[in-house]
Every structure is written in structure tokens, then in C-alpha cells.
Amino acid sequence: MNYWLMKSEPEECSIDDLARAPNQTVPWVGVRNYQARNFMRDAFALGDGVLFYHSSCPQPGIAGLAEVASAAYVDATQFDANSPYHDPKSKPEAPRWLHVDVRFGRKTRLLSLAEMRAEPRLQSMRVLQAGNRLSITPVSTEEWRALQELLAD
DNA sequence: GCCAACGTTGGC
DNA sequence: GCCAACGTTGGC
User: Fold this and answer.
1) pLDDT lower than 70: segments of chain A
2) What helix, strand, coil percent values describe chain A, rounded to 5?
3) What is the pLDDT of residues A65-99, one digit of tens each?
4) Which bases of chain B are contacted by protein, using any atom under 7 A from a CB?
5) Distance, angstroms, CA A132 to C1' C2?
6) Locate the EVE domain: which residues (predicted)?
7) How far apart are the C-alpha atoms of A36 and A106, rounded to whole Å?
8) Are A85 and A29 in contact (CB under 8 A)?
């Protein structure tokens, strides 16, 4: 069992959108970074815990919990010329981009980025390191446990 | 809107 | 393979 933090822009898909989605599950399409893709392809497992993080918004932070609901499979948007995620260099016979499905767990209070930065037990979190831009980052068991406490209220 | 940090691209 | 230019991310 592994744990992950996944960033989503709430204007595109918020924790509420995830809760309202069919089967409370969304295909996590649009990842166009090789490191993030490789996490999904090589390290994700069904049932892995996900921290659902709201980014690029007025109140960035963790907004809920979710889980990995599928293995990695081909992201069809890369071949769709009308999609913002279209990748003209990716060929159907050798798809570059994959994604997983993510299923809603529960909504939590918003644990703000500022609060995360101030919490001693979270200092090692990859998402908090200077210059980090990855939309998917691993979370250690210790970090996950601390977060469960912080989100319990 | 700014800007630092980082990834990608493409000429050489 | 190097590396400058460019694009993107994402908090502020």
C-alpha cells in the first residue's frame, strides 16, 4: 500500500466534483509529465491512498481523501485534436500518456498549504520542497499518518 | 501579473 | 550530448 498526493485545479475538478461524479470516480486524464506518468505506471496500485489537493486557486491545500481505482491505461485525450491535452507527437501505436481512475473517499476540512508548511511532521513532504512542480508526489507512511490526524477534526 | 524553478525542445 | 531558449507550473 502506497500513498500519493495528487494536485487538481478545483475549477477543473474539485473534491465536490469528484463526490458527484458517476461512481464517484474520475479518469485522471491530462498528466503530461514523464515523472508523474511513471509513478502511475510503475508504482501505483489499486487501493493506494490519495490526498486530493486543490492547486492554482485562492486556497491551495488538501481538500479530501481518495483512492486509486484502476491500473494505468492509455489516456485517450492525447489523440483528440480538440482536447486541451492533445499531444500531436504521440502515436496510437506507441501512446506516451497514461492515467488511472481515482475514486472519492471523503471530503475533509481544508488543510491549507500554509498549515502544511508549518507542521513539523510534514517537513519532508515532496510537495513542500522548493521548486516542486510535480502534480503527483509520493507520501510516506509517516506523513500519511500525521495527515490523518490533522484531517480528523 | 510576477517570477522562480524546472522540463522540454531543437540547433549545433 | 550540450545548452540556450522557451513554455509551464503554481504560489503569492
Assistant:
1) 153
2) 30, 30, 40
3) 999 999 999 999 999 988 889 998 888 888 999 99
4) 4-9
5) 25
6) 2-149
7) 24
8) yes
User: How many CB atoms are located within 10 Å of the residue A79 CB?
Assistant: 17
Chain mean pLDDT for chain A: 95
CA distance A133 to A126: 10
CA of A129: nearest nucleotide by C1' is B5
Q: Which residues pair with A67 in a beta bridge?
A: A49, A103
> How far apart are the C-alpha atoms of A62 and A10, rounded to whole Å?
11
Q: Do the bridges between strand A101-112 and strand A73-74 make them parallel or antiparallel, or are there none, so unpaired?
A: unpaired
Distant-in-sequence, close-in-space partners of A74: CB < 8 Å, separation ≥ 6: A95, A97, A98
Q: Catalogue the E-assigned strands of A1-153.
A: 3-8, 25-27, 49-54, 61-68, 73-74, 98-99, 101-112, 136-139
Give the residue whose CA sits closest to C8 at C1'.
A133
Domain A3-150 adopts which CATH fold?
ph1033 like fold (3.10.590)
For residues A72 and A67, what is the distance between their CA atoms, to the nearest angstrom?
13
